[in-house]
Amino acid sequence: MKIAVVGATxxxxxxxxxxxxxxxxxxxxxxxxxxxxxxxxxVGKEIKFxxxxxKVIGLEEAxxxxxxxxxxxxxxxxxxxxxxxxxxVGTFVVDNSSCWRMEKNxxxxxxxxxxxxxxxxxxxxxxxxxxxxxxxMALAPxxxxxxxxxxxxxxxxxxxxxxxxAVKQLNDERKGLETEKAYPxxxxxxxxxxxxxxxxxGYTTEEQKLVDETRKILGDQSIRITATVVRVPVVGxxxxxxxxxxxxxxxxxxxRKLLEEMPGVVVQDDPATNLYPMPLFSHGKDEVFxxxxxxxxxxxxxxxxxxxxxxxxxGAATNAVQIAAxxxxxxxx
Length: 333
What we know:
This protein is about 30% helix and about 25% strand. It has about 325 residues and is α/β, with parallel strands linked by helices. It starts with a strand and ends with a helix.
């Protein structure tokens, strides 16, 4: 397997390399060639993979090498311009940007839920937004069992979702240093309901992604969804509240069992011992953690959940590597 990581010098690209090195999804013995790829200003820099130094190459050179899979985390404009060029030479592109997610003929994949729809013709595959991935991991088994009618979701998103500049802003503020701002306001000791850019509807792009992507992944455009995104001064994970109204009645114990049996989901829910998911413990882990399961006593057939995951891992890098592993393991390459 020849694999390229496009955007290898970035925050998510670095995490993708780390996930590959861990061999949880693809044995290193099966990666015969590794190509770190980045923009012109990074070409020639050295990146280590599995203890060996590799020089960063440019996009044109990477295409000429015809990797089997190119995992992109280099921004929407780069993906728009270059993903089709990789696809033209037979490379599968797993794209982590927002560029292709809502394209009709581009599959939007969370492997535990819908990787079975992939075919050899799907040369461009979209990786969902980080907050969407962890949400649908919890929703999928419940939707199958009870059918979701309406969903109200609020997210509490880590600064790592914005990138290196935002992490530096938070760390500098905590040290009392002047810093270049990734956000319009101070983030330390603060939070603000602003993720992405504002749309004419009053919602933000991050909120709209949650609506559109959730429907696409679950294959149900009838689900009514409303979302609020909040940025919080946390490094290491996104958290979400989900208020889920079903068409059918549910049993709380059965719903818990469905979540416990969902691959990639860990239920942490014991109020008596203060056990519930937190970014503090999700950091660096691939699983999606679910807790605070309880009926909404104000509305029938409605369940409340708290969902936490490391947005750089399952929310980005891990999910992309899992897609690459699925392609290989199912003889699609």
